[in-house]
């Protein structure tokens, strides 16, 4: 039976002809060989013995699968279903949601496959860390011994964040360590959850935001009492669903769908302090992902450029004759 990490819902990830799965016991001796051949760039001073490797797999690795918050997640890496390397996220910090990337490939393939395997592995490990675990940041920590590694990871949009000068003693010489990193995008990191009574005040503040009022059909400010009544009614209404977007533990926006005969009408807004960062597109995209089979519509003022861009970029189409107002567009997605 294939092993699974308890902390992951999805355990197998693929990209083109590459895939990863939770590290397999049967790969332990190949991994030992790769590591012993590549001691020069690893944080390992002596070659591993068979006994050490078996002990490590039987204790440390074995414990990772059951753990709720393991300090590392390791995977076997395959190209066209052939095992060609291993790696994962290590030194995981669950509080700050960051981790270091580790990857070692079959030594004999380094000369021909270094870049393509690194690129594929980064894509796969980002699926694990960014999409599945919603981590905030991934980084690499590398001795300044393989300049081709920086070129490769920078192509995958990792930015050089620091050079730790003369950081490690290597063959009688202090060498630099390079740190590259990449942060997650709001679409993966933020969470869309149903609203509840505790969100009454946040929604009230947002609905009276000047830009929200300006972009609404009815532009007068909303009174607290009216909001309370409306909100309670909407929470009970089966034809309405309201969600709140949270990022880094903070509420950043809301989206509502009101079911009519033909469409589910979308209304949404992003907190003024979080606009222009991609959350608007993210909240609509998450709603679509959550309800892939529903038909949606949205009425948007012709002057509301960010909202028009969002609906256009998410595959909505302009629909004629759905509204009597000359200053609004109606977008639909069927
Ligand atoms: C409309 C609203 C939700 C957009 O949210 P947002 O988080 O600022 O939008 P995003 O950052 O996802 O940007 C969406 C697009 O608009 C563009 N954009 C953002 N702000 C812009 C601005 N001030 N002018 C022009 N374009 C802008 C972005 O570049 C992006 O386009 P791209 O994907 O082509 O790069 C937000 O402005 C808001 O809450 N407005 C008030 C309420 C409202 O209008 N709701 C929508 C009713 S239909």
In short:
The protein is α+β, with helices and mostly antiparallel strands and about 325 residues long. The chain contains ten helices and 15 strands. Helix 3 (about 110-130) crosses helix 4 (about 145-155).
**CATH H-tier superfamily of the largest domain:** Gcn5-related N-acetyltransferase (GNAT)
Annotation field: number of helices:
10
The coarse overall form would be elongated
Bound molecules: coenzyme A
Helix content: 25-40%
β-strand percent reads: 25-35%
* Number of separate strands: 15
Mean pLDDT: 94
> Which architecture of the largest domain does the CATH hierarchy give at level 2?
3-Layer(aba) Sandwich
N-to-C SSE series?
A: EEHHEEEHEHEEHEHHHEEEHEHEE
Oligomer: single chain
Indicate the CATH class of the largest domain. Answer: Alpha Beta
Q: Strand count, sense and closure of the main sheet? A: 8 strands, mixed
Number of domains: 2
Work out the radius of gyration. 25 Å
SSE order and pairing:
Elements lengths: L12 E3 L2 E5 L5 H10 L12 H17 L6 E7 L2 E12 L4 E8 L4 H23 L4 E7 L3 H9 L3 E12 L2 E11 L2 H4 L1 E4 L5 H8 L2 H5 L9 H13 L3 E8 L2 E10 L4 E7 L8 H12 L5 E6 L3 H9 L3 E2 L9 E6 L1
Parallel strand pairs: 5-6, 12-13
Antiparallel strand pairs: 1-2, 2-3, 3-4, 4-5, 6-8, 7-8, 9-10, 10-11, 11-12, 13-15, 14-15
Helix pairs in contact: 3-4
The structure holds coenzyme A (COA).
The site of coenzyme A has 22 residues, from helix 7, strand 12, helix 9, strand 13 and helix 10.
